Amino acid sequence: MQAISSAARARIGDFNSQALANTAWAFSRLLLADGPLFNAIASQSRVRMNDFQPQNLTNIAWAWSTLQMTDMPLLDSIAAAAIHTIDVFGVQNLANTSWAYAGLRVMHDSLMASISSAARPTIALFDPQSLANLAWACARCC
């Protein structure tokens, strides 16, 4: 993983939004808080934020939350992009994005309001885990 990190940092400008999100997700899934790599991913993600699909936004937020890493410029950028595209977020994206922010105890009121508004009409589609994640996020953010 150290070799992957080094190679990724050297070519981070070539990464598209999915590659950035997948790399962050993979390292966080392994609980590898590689500071230099995550700083490079955060910087490049802020530059490419308008290219991120809902799943990419969710994966980046999830990665930072899983590792308990707070990067407010990145989290603010994710929130703004999510709010802008919330109408195309699926159930899992809504639940996991809210979970990620709540896990970091980042109180982003406008993001949570957008997630809540988007979730209401589709709440019957939420599986038990997604309902639990959303409920936990709402409880933790209040």
Question: Could you explain the architecture of this structure?
Answer:
With 142 residues, the chain is mostly helical. The protein has one domain (2-141). The chain has helices spanning 2-10, 17-29, 35-48, 54-66, 72-85, 91-103, 109-119, 128-141. It starts with a helix and ends with a helix. The model has no long low-confidence stretch (mean pLDDT 95).
Alpha carbon gyration radius: 15 Å
Q: Helices and strands, in N-to-C order?
A: HHHHHHHH
Helical content class: over 70%
How would you classify the helix and strand content by structural class? mainly alpha
Total number of β-strand segments? 0
User: Gap between N and C termini, in Å?
Assistant: 38 Å
Detail the poorly predicted runs.
Answer: none
Mean pLDDT: 95
Describe the structure concisely for a colleague.
By secondary structure, the protein is an all-alpha fold. The chain has helices at residues 2-10, 17-29, 35-48, 54-66, 72-85, 91-103, 109-119, 128-141. Helices cover 71% and strands 0% of the residues.
Task: Name some characteristics of this structure.
142 residues, mainly alpha, globular
Chain-wise SSE layout:
Blueprint: H1 2-10, H2 17-29, H3 35-48, H4 54-66, H5 72-85, H6 91-103, H7 109-119, H8 128-141
Helix pairs in contact: 1-3, 2-3, 2-4, 3-5, 4-5, 4-6, 5-7, 6-7, 6-8
